[in-house]
# Entry
Amino acid sequence: MPKTKTGWQKEKDGYIYYEADGTVMKGRQYRELPKINTEKEWYLTEDGKLLTGVQQWKGAYWFFNADGTLHKKRDYVQSQWGQWYMIGDNGQVLSGVQKWQGSYWYFEPSTYLKADHQEYIQSQWGTWYMVGKDGRLMSGLVDWQGSKYYFDPTTYLKVTNTDVVVDGVTYHADQTGILSVAQAAKSYGGDYSKYQPNLYNNTGQDSFAVSQIGGSVNGYIYEQGTYASHAQQAKAKGWRFHTYIWMQTGSNQAQTQAMLNYFLPRIQGNKGSIVALDYEAGASGNIEANTDNILVGMRQIKAAGYTPVLYSYKPYLLSHVDIGRVLAEFPNSIWVAGYQNGLSTMPNYAAFPSMDGVAMWQYSDYGGQQDLNVDLTGITWNGYR
# Structure
């Protein structure tokens, strides 16, 4: 007479648990049984067969390891059919907003899968978030259904009824969160080199100064002896202090990188302050190569923790630089020169050299004595907010 099978038996399609009388318990059961190897453990079975992977039990989904034990660790796991799921500390398959490896992700409540398209969703605790195409919660400036919104980088919540500044541009968020460019309060200031040893309040309203630290002429690097004094004077006056560098390097990226390697550690403006590249001489005949060189410099400035700005006058920029490429990577980063007639210390906007992306306008050289500038976007507050 054949011996009755009892306990765990390894069959061709997996482990099956046989009761003491050799039968299997019908239906799906979650109960404590002898461990397959030793001691006791809780297992999910169906008609006695050991279940693994993602399984449904009592209105929820759970993940069981290959040995049948419940996966009691927060983890992102692959199921038996290839799709990936987020598992909680109790082994349950999770949905909604979940934290994983330092980021927040959204898992669809109906499928439990990570979101794969941008959507505005309500979380399991009622608050609303923007989810990106990769399933991660979005923050910062976000385009959605034809409008711009701003999501707080700390809370990930949409901001409403307030102003936010992004890349030097001030936006106002209305009660629904839709952003519009706010009219920035204009401020005034001069730019200085060795020819102006002293800072002067030309408009009577000056609140910033931009000083030349030096530059590069075809690879020859020089310094301006007045730079440190300008920084000290600006501090004494309570002005915001910024920097510009003469960039006569044409399309030579190596010269630009060497120039910035030299000057960036010597910047005396606050981190975040403007470091402008003065590109008004020495351009090559290759517009794309010139633009590549400028972008290499602006990226290096940004990587060092400062606000990159490109300075020149409109005809020179249009002849030698692809402004669209610059603005695509660095919006509102142009400081343009275009002088009005007369000796007025205040700007005459009828003389404005209209072009895209202008953050600052150098509107006069005041008869060759002193350059006068107006900040149109609030960019001179960068580093000093």
About this structure: The mean pLDDT is 93. Helices lie at 227-237, 253-263, 287-303, 314-320, 323-329. The two ends are 90 Å apart (CA to CA). DSSP finds five helices and 27 strands in the chain.
